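Researcher: Quick test of sequence recovery. Tokens follow.
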């Protein structure tokens, strides 16, 4: 009900301003009328007393007139009447309370009324009515009346205004509460509930608002939105199912293509050894060979069988790759071991090794046997790529990189770069080099599984491989292995 309190506070503010303005106007009007009535009544009483006093002066003299004033004061307690002399030299008890300069109109035969503070007793209204005995008369009747009645009237008016304001605000608050519940709160609860259900996937256009105002229009709009969203969702679902079906068909086609390449590779790799084995077997069975030739044919059959076994073992290693058995390793030492192991092969191919190590190359957690397999495969590929010999570089450096498959993940990686100066890889072959049985080597010089196995091992370690190759200038394989992953 936070909205109700906001509306109610705004209503209080508006009503308060309106009632304050109306009260101020009413107050000024009432005070003016009250003052006007008091002044008018005082002047009427003064004129009546002035007439009586003038008559008493003509008939009985001044003493009778003063007695008449005393009698009037004894009967009237709200208004005090005095005889005053308007001569500047007049002294108490006949001097006027108000200075003569403020009641000059009385000297000209006109009544005058003035409000003034009387010796700390409060504010009084002093009314002066001249006594017209002759043209030289400078006497008047002074009527003094306390304005405490006015003060009390103002106090009562303020209390009445405050009480009316409080009652009006309470009544309007109660009325607003019930009407707010009916007109605003209940429809809002419906809209909030419907919004939650839409967020949970319920797109049924079942919102009913029993009114004819903007809430009803909003409810109709929300129902229309639900219908449109439902239709769009159905269309998206159908389209998504079609896309999934198309993707499945594409994957099936890719699996068939992969199976075809795998079969072709196996047939290619197994074909030559099997043909040799078949031919030697036929020669042995013919019985035309000399004993020495039979032994040689048996040796060749054994050699070709070993090749087939090696191919099958590579295929099994590729298909049933085990999880890495990690431990902290110094990859520079691992590179040196591989280079020492392949030194005879490199020397025969006239290839020279160069290891480039940067500072702060850390230890990393890897499977040492699998990493040796990765380095061995890549170094052998580099040696075999340089037919006329050359220099093969192995570089180790620490880099901060973003993983290509985890765009929001940045970490430190040990980059191992293996560069050769061979003939390079054609651009059309680069995207296939990690596929099983794909090889750019001559027949009999490779199974086409080495790079596939390397790729899988590096992925198992949370890294990846990048390849850069220029025909006629050489190829660089760069292996990235995670050091410490962080977001």
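Model:
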């Amino acid at each position: 009900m936070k909205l109700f309190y906001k509306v109610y506070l705004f209503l209080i503010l508006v009503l308060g301003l309106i009632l304050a303005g109306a009260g101020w106007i009413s107050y000024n009007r009432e005070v003016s009328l009250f003052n006007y009535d008091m002044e008018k009544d005082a002047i009427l009483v003064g004129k009546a007393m002035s007439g009586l006093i003038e008559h008493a002066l003509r008939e009985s003299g001044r003493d009778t007139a003063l007695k008449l004033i005393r009698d009037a004061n004894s009967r009237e307690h709200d208004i005090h009447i005095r005889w005053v002399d308007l001569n500047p030299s007049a002294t108490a008890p006949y001097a006027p309370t108000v200075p003569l300069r403020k009641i000059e109109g009385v000297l000209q035969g006109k009544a005058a009324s003035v409000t003034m503070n009387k010796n700390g007793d409060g504010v009084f209204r002093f009314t002066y009515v001249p006594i017209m005995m002759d043209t030289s008369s400078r006497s008047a009747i002074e009527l003094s009346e306390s304005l405490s009645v006015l003060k009390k009237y103002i106090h009562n008016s303020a209390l009445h205004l405050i009480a009316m304001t409080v009652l009006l605000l309470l009544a309007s608050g109660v009325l607003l509460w019930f009407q707010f519940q009916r007109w605003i709160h209940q429809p809002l609860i419906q809209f909030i509930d419907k919004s939650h259900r839409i967020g949970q996937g319920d797109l049924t256009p079942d919102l009913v608002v029993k009114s004819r105002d903007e809430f009803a229009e909003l409810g109709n709009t929300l129902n229309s939105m639900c219908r449109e969203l439902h239709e769009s969702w159905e269309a998206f679902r159908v389209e998504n199912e079609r896309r999934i079906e198309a993707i499945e068909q594409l994957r099936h086609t890719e699996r068939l293509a992969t199976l075809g390449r795998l079969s072709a590779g196996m047939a290619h790799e197994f074909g030559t050894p099997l043909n040799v084995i078949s031919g030697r077997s036929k020669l042995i069975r013919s019985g035309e060979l000399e004993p020495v030739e039979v032994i040689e044919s048996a040796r060749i059959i054994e050699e070709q069988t070993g090749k087939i076994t090696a191919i099958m073992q590579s295929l099994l290693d590729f298909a049933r790759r085990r999880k890495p058995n990690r431990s902290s390793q110094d990859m520079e030492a691992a590179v040196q071991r591989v280079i020492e192991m392949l030194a005879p092969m490199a020397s025969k191919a006239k290839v020279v090794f160069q290891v480039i190590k940067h500072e702060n190359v850390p230890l990393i957690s890897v499977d040492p046997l699998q990493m040796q397999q990765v380095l061995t495969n890549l170094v052998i590929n580099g040696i075999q790529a340089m037919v006329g010999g050359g220099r093969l570089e192995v570089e180790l450096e620490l880099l901060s990189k973003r993983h290509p498959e985890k765009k929001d993940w940045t970490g430190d990686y040990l980059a191992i770069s293996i560069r050769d100066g061979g003939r390079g890889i054609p651009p059309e072959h680069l995207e296939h080099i990690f596929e099983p049985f794909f090889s750019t080597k001559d027949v009999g010089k490779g199974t086409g599984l080495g790079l596939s196995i390397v790729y899988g091992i590096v992925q198992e370690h949370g890294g990846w491989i990048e390849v850069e190759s220029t025909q006629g200038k050489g190829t660089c394989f760069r292996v990235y292995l995670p050091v410490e992953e962080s977001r």
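The chain has three domains: 2-154, 203-320, 322-486.
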